[in-house]
Amino acid sequence: MFLIYHRLYGLDSITLRISEDCSLVTESQVILLLDTNNNQTREDYNTRLTAIRRTVEQIKTYNPDANIGMFSYSDELEQVFTLSWSADIDELISAALKVRIDIGKTISNTSHALKHIRESNLFNSSRNLVVLFSNARWNNLDEIDLEIQLSKQQDIHIFGVAAGEDCDKDNLAGVLNDPSFMFYVDDDDFTSLKSLASITKYYNCTDDIFKKRQ
């Protein structure tokens, strides 16, 4: 984050020596949350599964220290694999791709899924992320928005991947409240997921870093 401030404020006279003032933190935990309601086309659902596969590949390649867990949900939440289940990319992808659309359920209770994750004490990392994959055709946006705000207060940050032609991008962007928290997948272009992976690493700098380098 300090590098962003360095560019924004033009602090060219300050020489930042990362090795002395900042440490790279790679410990992150990421939960993938997949909406399996039956109110979505199989083609678009498969696009979201592909986005999950690419997300796993990007995260584990960029940051092998990141732990990935996964849940699926329609009206109820189901665990696909835990955060500590495997570090193997192929195993994680294989398990994720086995999740099918919930034929009997046309409802996606996203707020309930987010609440369950928030209240279950699943995270014990310094960076805790939930990545939502859904067509976002919700009619309870206020409830979802509330859960995202409550999660943020507990240092759980919710991101969204807009994948599939049936995805309501306005709904997804609206509840995330920050355009940088949404990653677009268009056609077969999954480039944005590299940026998502990069969030799993960050520099932790001393509070007085700018004063020290003046």
Taken in chain order, the helices and strands follow as HHEEHEEHHEHEHEHEH
Strand content: 15-25%
How many β-strand stretches?
8
Structural class: alpha/beta
Q: Quick check: average pLDDT? A: 88
Q: What is Rg?
A: 18 Å
Pfam family, one: VWA
Protein name: VWFA domain-containing protein
InterPro entries: VWF_A (IPR002035), vWFA_dom_sf (IPR036465)
Features of this protein?
VWFA domain-containing protein; two-stranded antiparallel sheet; vWFA_dom_sf; alpha/beta; 6-stranded mixed sheet; 214 residues; VWF_A
Textual characterization of the structure:
The chain is α/β, with parallel strands linked by helices. The protein has nine helices and eight strands. It has helices at residues 2-9, 18-21, 42-62, 89-97, 110-119, 141-153, 169-176, 192-198, 209-212; strands spanning 22-25, 29-35, 67-73, 77-81, 128-133, 156-162, 182-184, 202-205. The strands form two sheets. It has a six-stranded mixed β-sheet with strand order 4-3-2-5-6-7, with helices on both faces. Strands 1-8 form a two-stranded antiparallel ribbon. Helix 3 (42-62) packs across helix 8 (192-198) and helix 6 (141-153) packs parallel to helix 7 (169-176). It is globular and about 55 Å long. The two termini are 18 Å apart. 36% of the residues are buried.
How are the secondary structure elements laid out?
Blueprint: H1 2-9, H2 18-21, E1 22-25, E2 29-35, H3 42-62, E3 67-73, E4 77-81, H4 89-97, H5 110-119, E5 128-133, H6 141-153, E6 156-162, H7 169-176, E7 182-184, H8 192-198, E8 202-205, H9 209-212
Parallel strand pairs: 2-3, 2-5, 5-6, 6-7
Antiparallel strand pairs: 1-8, 3-4
Helix pairs in contact: 3-4, 3-8, 5-6, 6-7
Protein name: VWFA domain-containing protein
Organism: Mytilus edulis
Domain VWFA: 29-200
